Amino acid sequence: MTSLDQRLASARLYAIVDTGYVATERVPYITEQLVLGGVDLIQLRAKKLPLKEIAGLGKQMRALIPAEGSEARALFILNDHPELVSEIGADGIHVGQDDLSVAEARKQAGAGVLVGKSTHSLEQAIAAEKEGADYIGVGPIYATPTKPDYVPVGPALIGQVRAAVRVSQFCIGGINEQTLPEVLAAGALRVVIVSALLQSRDIPAYCRKLREKVAKDGPSATPTGL
Ligand code: TZP
Ligand code: MG
Question: What is the pTM of this model?
Fold first, then answer.
């Protein structure tokens, strides 16, 4: 296991700075709040911005996300655009089912970069592991305005995926303080939260509270971090 893999294995809370919720000028402030909250991964997801602006935001975020040697360190992941990864200095790239293959994203992003892939069914989770993804997203677990065109998969998929694949899994979609207990009871070890974190009044406190719940009430990790 590389040190990036180890950090994925021990990760519990993954936050996404989605420019659908955060105005670009607030991206640095929100990034700082998430770092203060101790999240394990932070992704930049900017679906509607031109490449140049994404590169600029990515560089600003990179400067604010401690890479090593700090308790508040987090992995920095870019959604889409593997060609920007080395310029930004991101730790990883996240691709969807309709994007580049894991191999192509890895080739474009460069050696030593993590590649994550979204999955929406058991078959896709198994395929993404075979494709060599370093981690997978599993969802949307519940209906969510952040990804409105997707049919929710429901919490039952969480246990099925966990039993079938060894790659690190992050459950995503409609997860918040209210739905988290059901997600954890269904077997989730790691979660991604977007709108609930970004819209909370006190982002660092909300992050800490939910991360602690995932770590405490989630299933125990096996020695391999699964
Ligand atoms: N992929 C599956 S669900 C989702 C993505 C990007 C959005 C999750 O957002 P939220 O606001 O936490 O429901
Ligand atoms: Mg994509």
Answer: 0.96
